[in-house]
Amino acid sequence: MTIAERIITWDEVENAWECRPGRNQNGNSGAITMRIARTIAGYIGQGVMLATVANRLDTTVGQVHHYRSLVTRLAPELQAAISADILRFKVGRALTRITDYNRQKAIAKLFIDGACSSVLAESIIKLAGDHRDWDTAKLLSVASGQGVAGYRSPTVRETHAPVKARVVAKPLPKVRDANDLPREILWMAGAMKIGADRPMTIAEKATIATTLHNLRAAADELAAAVAL
Asked: What ranges do the domains of the chain cover?
């Protein structure tokens, strides 16, 4: 008789939860993880709400769902791999978003064989969901190039659109002597160019306002001198 074929008591759920990795460092963490998963899945399978279990364990519904999914959505072979500490919980949890057991196992092999780190799990699983025709080699290649930040499938328009260079925020040029009109004009030209590339801060706007005032004053003085 398996744990899913008999009545699971709340005490069993609570005892398993108290031994979760991070609280109890003794023993096989993978086996403990799967014990929690089987206990929670069996208890919820008796008609108990996910939210009820989460509240009584003082955790989130999402966390309870992750453990339950290891039993309800993960290939049995991969459940065994987690129990044996061959596959990490983080990877197994991500793999539950793939419904095809064979594809789960093919992707899991990348992590089991050490072809990639578990930090790429989320990126690879997202790619696998977006591109079901991609093999594991292509998934790994693209995910590695994107890094842990992930990958967003481009739209048809984005695919054919020219790549726009990223604008690097530049500081305003150093303020010149307010009495040096030619240099002040050059400074303003540089400031206006930067202002067209990115939004300016309040401090930068104040500096420009002051410089404009100085330029107007200098221009008035120059006009007065020419008139004489």
From this structure: 3-115, 181-227
pLDDT tens for each residue of 75-98: 999 999 999 999 999 999 999 999
| pTM exceeding the 0.70 threshold for the entire prediction | no
CA distance 41 to 68: 5
What fold, for 3-115?
Answer: Arc Repressor Mutant, subunit A (1.10.10)
Q: Are 118 and 110 in contact (CB under 8 A)?
A: no
Closest CA to 81 of 115, 64, 104, 63: 104
CA dihedral 71, 73, 78, 79 (to 10 degrees): 0
Q: What is the 3-state secondary structure (H, E, C) of the chain?
A: CCHHHCCCCHHHHHHHHHCCCCCCCCCCHHHHHHHHHHHHHHHHCCCCCHHHHHHHHCCCHHHHHHHHHHHHCCCHHHHHHHHCCCCCHHHHHHHCCCCCHHHHHHHHHHHHCCCCCHHHHHHHHHHHHHCCCCCHHHHHHHHHHHHHHCCCCCCHHHHHCCCCCCCCCCCCCCCCCCCCHHHHHHHHHHHHHHHHHCCCCHHHHHHHHHHHHHHHHHHHHHHHHHHC
Burial profile 54-80: b = 16 or more Cβ within 10 angstroms, e = fewer: beebeeeeeebbbbbbbbebbbeebbe
By C-alpha distance, which of 192, 175, 178 is closest to 221? 178
Task: Please determine, for residue 156, whether its predicted confidence score (pLDDT) is greater than 50.
Answer: no
> Tokens representing 181?
């009109």
